[in-house]
Amino acid sequence: xxxxxxxxxxxxxxxxxxxxxxxxxxxxxxxxxxxxxxxxxxxxxxxxxxxxxxxxxxxxxxxxxxxxxxxxxxxxxxxxxxxxxxxxxxxxxxxxxxxxxxxxxxxxxxxxxxxxxxxxxxxxxxxxxxxxxxxxxxxxxxxxxxxxxxxxxxxxxxxxxxxxxxxxxxxxxxxxxxxxxxxxxxxxxxxxxxxxxxxxxxxxxxxxxxxxxxxx
Length: 216
Hints:
Elements: H1 4-45, H2 50-53, H3 62-84, H4 94-102, H5 110-125, H6 133-149, H7 158-174, H8 177-189, H9 194-198, H10 206-209
Keywords: Chloride, Chloride channel, Ion channel, Ion transport, Membrane, Transmembrane, Transmembrane helix, Transport
GO molecular function: chloride channel activity
Organism: Veronia nyctiphanis
């Protein structure tokens, strides 16, 4: 019995996943760092952060005017982006990522994803009381899914690439590598097996890749 072919196939699969994961992680880390930096820049320049808002105390009557004006304009721009530019006309987040992976469905279109991410930056930068976690998770998934859209022949590893992007986004933005790994494993993939790396066709069999005992 010749076992060299399965070993070569397994080694090739692991190599492809490892190299792709490094690339996805680097790109996502840069994007996530830019995401957080852009929000902080807007907070500082639009008098949203406490330190920048302190400069308005000399003109006490200006503080409420600026706060109301910034939040109103931020909400208006965010609403216009989502309503008129996004194809899905709604913000995207972790539920869309989980649905795409668990049900083996395509991710929403790239344009809607980019618009949703930009809208999140503007909304958070203008002081909206929402968190960075949701937009970052989807942005990481969007980067991971680009390998499939580039048609490089890695469709079988799509779920792993999406999970790599999610883990990288959380790890770099919150300086929490273990939390990013655990979140991607427990929430996005929900099940992981070396069989997937040895035989990529298992991805097309949900009853094997996601056994019944792991379904929720």
